[in-house]
Amino acid sequence: MTLAEHSTAAQEATAPALDVATQHHLDDLAWQRAMMASVPKFAIEAIRAIVLTSGGFALIGLAFVGSIYGSDPWQARALVTPIFLLAAGAFSGVLCAALSYIAQWSFARASVARHHGWEPPYVTTTPAATPYRRIGKTFQIAAVIAAVGAFGFMIAGGLDAWTVLLE
Q: What top-level branch of life does the organism fall under (predicted)?
């Protein structure tokens, strides 16, 4: 076997491995693009559910207070606290969205910190991803707490309004 034949045979033997590695690299890049695209979508979905519900309740409460203030000022003043709680729920929803955005950005940044190699495993995570994962996890937990807080404010405001209206 000549040197040229040996070189061609070696290239043909490594071609499938390179194709597999290239496919792994392309799959990883597609995953990174999907993570980056999810950053704004995640925050938008988080803010819609909480802020629209809580903010809508607060606006309905303000409209109701405005309509009854002339006939029953005591009840209108008593409804200020429930409306404040509902508005706090809307603010907590906005906070949840901001925290979610930072968490998703951190996770997306961690997914970019990868090494593409030509031998298995073809894609490995680098140590640079660790701080981004920690930041993402911390902000994700804070976002969940803010979301639970928003629902807590909505429930407290609704119950408080209900007790005022029953008096």
A: Bacteria
